[in-house]
Amino acid sequence: MRLIGSAAHDYDRMDELEQVLLPGDDLHPLAAQLVAPILAFAADPKTRLPDQLLMLVRELAAHPGGGAVRDSLRAFTITLRNLSDLDDHSVVEESTALLGYCGPDPALSAALLARARAEADDYLRVTPLVTAAQLDPAAAAGWLPEFLAESQTPTTRVAAVLAAREAGLPAGADTAAALAAGWSADPDALRWTTRKARLAGLVGYAAGPGREEEVYASIARDGQPQARRDVAQALADRSARGDLPDGLGALLCRLLDDPEERVRRCAYRAVVADDALTRRQAGWLALKVGQGAPMRRSALDALLRVGDPRWMDHALDALRQGWTPPRLPAALVALPSLDAPLREAVLGRVLALATTIDVARSPKATANDHRELVGLLKVLEHTPEGAIAPLAAHLPQMTFPPRLWVAEFLAEAGRGDPAVLAALAAVANGEVIYLRLLWLAGGDDAPLRAAIAVAPRRDVLAAVAAAEVFGDADPDVAARLRDIRDSDADVKDRFAAAGALWELTGDPAEAAATVREALQAPWLRTRQRAAELAEQLGLAG
User: What is the CA radius of gyration of the chain?
Assistant: First the structure.
């Protein structure tokens, strides 16, 4: 009660009350019992936020598990009627909508119908019209056709469709036409009222199976830009659910050439996300890539996803101009070979990514660049010709983590190369992580041994490197790894130690428990490595 009282006057406390009564997708078990005190505060003239309280009750009543709340509301018809007669627009809207849960009530329905007829503002007519239909569906079946007629305003016709649906009435022969014409002319019909509905839901009700395409096509042809965008969004949502018939898919594709940019963009996002639509529009997408359209990166990525061979025509430009699609590196890795221009373009892009850091870019953009760099380095692993010397020369100009990834590539691909050894030595700066790579590349192990000797005992990099350098010749190496494995360090470090122990001892029991834990780690790379090691160890599931 104290929280309800404070929420009646304070938005922050109102948010807190909503979180208590609607935690996630659930409904508080005492929600129905709290309807009475909430409405009492809403009816108090001293309450600062009566509309917010009423809105909360409406959310409770509309909840799938809100049957008891809806039953409770029947006892408050008089309270809600009094609130619906006030001058506060928001309070009138919310209380009138709540009256819809108080039926059946033919007398109240007639009063609200009279209010709807007398209302001069189309948007203010919606809620009383819908509530009147809910309170007396049988009578509404007789008077709703009047509001669906062509002589009515577009807003009123849409409101009448919603009213028929909410009253549980079957759609009539003129319902679909009223919706199409009304929504085309006023896509905002329900946006300024308490009684809202999505176009898709209304089309599903009004048209029924088999006629949806006709309604959507009518709105797409005759509707205002926002109405056409609503069509594109409704079809895009169905595409995302895998529920888009061929006819509606064709309509969505036609919206790619709509004169309104927002419509085109909505349709485009759906097309590039759906395999069937991408294949249908592959020629159009390839043309847009060739024209240098702003969406060329995602268009080319869509062609890559469905395996359309036309992606090869644009790979070189994408790499040279710096708009590499996410799937391009993997596609290049899968090719049997790369010609010289492609290899040079991959190397150029790697150098650009590894030596350029834009601190003004967002973390998401930086992460995308990092993923691209890692993917393109995998391409170079298959065709390292000509890449080792330029990467070694630029290694000191790179910063972490690109420097580390390039150093790992050089240590593997340029083993024994004097330029690689010199570059790794130049950036090592006494760090175990780089001195280990220097040793793996064929360099002197003395600097690595010295760094291991002074590293903290629980430094996982030093411990793993010690296992590689000393093997089982030093009995303290295994003890050092066990200390880390059994510590309270992050699971990725404990997993690294456990994996090194298995490599060192050949005993699966040294790593099994930690590997199972690492399979649930929050880091994708750790989970992937744990899955690989689990398979090697023969761990079930």
Answer: 33
Whether the CB-CB separation of 511 and 538 falls below 8 Å is answered with no
Residues whose CB falls within 8 Å of the CB of residue 71, separated by 6 or more in sequence, listed in order: 32
Q: Is the peptide bond before 145 cis (omega within 30 degrees of 0)?
A: no
Q: Specify whether the CB–CB gap between 272 and 298 falls below 8 A.
A: yes
pTM for the whole thing? Answer: 0.80
Residue 211 DSSP symbol: T
Q: Residue 513: count other Cβ atoms within 10 Å of its Cβ.
A: 14
Q: Token pair of 379, please?
A: 């391409």
Q: What is the DSSP string of 362-411?
A: -HHHHHHHHHHHHHHHHHHHH--TTTHHHHHHHGGG--TTHHHHHHHHHH
Look at residue 540 in the predicted model and tell me its pLDDT.
62
The tokens describing 348, both together, are 């150029």
Identity at 124, one-letter amino acid code: L
pLDDT mean by block of 10 residues, the chain; 541 residues: 84 90 87 91 92 93 90 92 91 95 93 95 96 97 96 97 96 94 97 92 90 95 97 96 93 95 96 95 95 92 96 96 96 93 96 81 85 95 91 93 94 94 94 93 92 89 88 84 91 91 89 91 88 84 54
Would you state the pLDDT for residue 253? Answer: 95
pLDDT given for residue 432 in this prediction: 92
Q: What is the DSSP string of 477-526?
A: HHHHHHHHHTSSS-HHHHHHHHHHHHHHH--GGGTHHHHHHHTT-S-HHH
For the chain, report the end-to-end CA distance as a whole number of angstroms: 50
Q: Do the Cβ atoms of 343 and 315 come closer than 8 Å? A: no
pLDDT of residue 250: 95
User: DSSP readout, 26-45?
Assistant: ---TTTGGGHHHHHHHHH-T
* Burial call 131-156: b when 16+ CB within 10 Å, e when fewer: bbbbbbbebbeebbbebbeeebebbb
The DSSP code for 172 is -
